[in-house]
Amino acid sequence: MKQRLAIAEALIGGPKLVILDEPVNGLDPAGIHEVREIIKSLARKSGITFLISSHLLNEMELMADKLGIIKDGKLLYEGDLQKLTDKQVNRITVGVSDLRKAVDYFKSVGIQVSIQEKDLMIEGNYSTEDISKRLMGQGIGITCIYKQNDSLENIYLRMMDGQSN
Known about the structure:
By secondary structure, the chain is of the alpha+beta class. Helix content is 42%, strand content 27%.
């Protein structure tokens, strides 16, 4: 209740900017969800800009449109969350009816694949549609296909290690 009350107090007077430090710290999952939805709704409906400082990157990924990443007082990234995550190497996981045939095909066209358990892992900027069309064109059945974008946490850790974003 203290977190919700603090947010309510910050909204008195109809500010255009609200600064919050760790607004979901110490809340249970239901409380976290509620506060996140309140912030998103107020930003969308009332045009309030929320500047949120948080170490909970998964929450920022669910809440923020734009973000800044700071290390030792230096701004490493400032901009759209979507643009940052879109630039990352993504991974497509594919379950296929004929694993060996699929691996041979992808190698023949220069697409790097690896096998994890019974699935193919394809890294790079490919769409699931492209991969599906390629496999179907080779007569290879697909049992599942999904794309995994790199998490904000992984991107952040690479930036902290000095790797490029």
